[in-house]
Amino acid sequence: TPRVFSGIQPSGNLHLGNYLGALKRFVDTQNAGGFQTIYCMVDLHAITVWQDPEKLRHSTRELAAGFIAAGIDPEKSILINQSQVPEHAQLAWVFNCVARMGWMGRMTQWKDKAGKDAEAASLGLFAYPSLMAADILVYHATHVPVGEDQKQHLELTRDIAAKFNHDFGVDFFPMTEPVIEGAATRVMSLRDGTKKMSKSDPSDASRINLTDDADTISKKIRKAKTDFEPLPETLEGLSGRPDARNLVNIYAALADMTPEAVMSEYAGAQFGTFKPALADLAVARLAPITREMSRLMADPAEIDRILARGATQAREITVPILRKTYDIIGMVGST
Ligand code: AQP
């Protein structure tokens, strides 16, 4: 069976963008069948920027609880914490030696996150896409559901696979397909429809956290930035109105509708009508997940057991693939 791999960083503030752009689609892929699904808390990626150890522990378990609460079933999917499957980091080293500095330097996430002071950024932040390529290719995964922001990293994953195959004259690593589909591959900030909703945005009002209670969710949606025009008849009418467009996309994704269908339902509606409808929908969809997350968080030992079992299952796949990689390279003792 073909494999699907994807991950989320346990860097706190799991939000609606992560849910609609990633988690919800992971669950849909798992339930659709036809793929072996592997989902990961990428803690090694999280530490490319400073993480407080206690918070990292908490965020990792909370993220695992979020995966399970959203519908990832450890009986159907392999659920792991990246650092506990050491072949990810081992293959990443190999890819550090395959990828070129210039490739990494062109990544927009690197440029955004390193900012003006690249000299002070960690070496890990620079090499981030190489570890991401290893995460995927250590399973020979062919499909990776992600949000729009990860497209460039997935192209780099293909470049790394192709260069490895070419350098060693093998056809070993597959070409991975990004799966970027649905209405919410790019959920924007509630305070600024031109910026993506993000864990690290200093404004808590910019995002809906999966740990927010119903009141907070409603309040954030009612206060979301919008213009004063009613909703138009068609999607085209939303061009140049990024804040309005964002709310329509969120509605569509939460309701499993197309944005076009949302427009025909709410054509002519004022935000005074649309926002409360969206708030109710968001609460109806998210409250059960939030509740289940806090129930799971009451028993961290059970979460740890699930992740330990996931790591064992994962290593049945990763150990042979890493061994074969080392053998191709010429490392003695690998056969
Ligand atoms: N706003 C978003 N809309 C849709 N999808 C999103 N994703 C993230 N933000 C949005 C998707 O969530 C998955 C996991 O992301 P991540 O945690 O690995 O990394 P990230 O993109 O760095 O998350 P943030 O929230 O943007 O964190 P910071 O603030 O640290 O940069 C990915 O599939 C991603 O596409």
UniProtKB/TrEMBL annotation:
GO terms for molecular function: tryptophan-tRNA ligase activity. It is found in: Cytoplasm. InterPro entries: aa-tRNA-synth_I_CS, aa-tRNA-synth_Ic, Rossmann-like_a/b/a_fold, Trp-tRNA-ligase, Trp-tRNA-ligase_bac-type, Trp-tRNA_synthetase. A motif ('HIGH' region) lies at residues 10-18. A motif ('KMSKS' region) lies at residues 196-200. It is an enzyme of class 6 (ligase). L-tryptophan binds at D135. The keyword Protease does not apply. SUPFAM superfamilies: Nucleotidylyl transferase. Its EC number is 6.1.1.2. It catalyses: tRNA(Trp) + L-tryptophan + ATP = L-tryptophyl-tRNA(Trp) + AMP + diphosphate + H(+). Homodimer. Catalyzes the attachment of tryptophan to tRNA(Trp). HAMAP family: Trp_tRNA_synth_B (MF_00140_B). NCBIfam families: trpS. Belongs to the class-I aminoacyl-tRNA synthetase family. This is Tryptophan--tRNA ligase. It comes from Seohaeicola nanhaiensis.
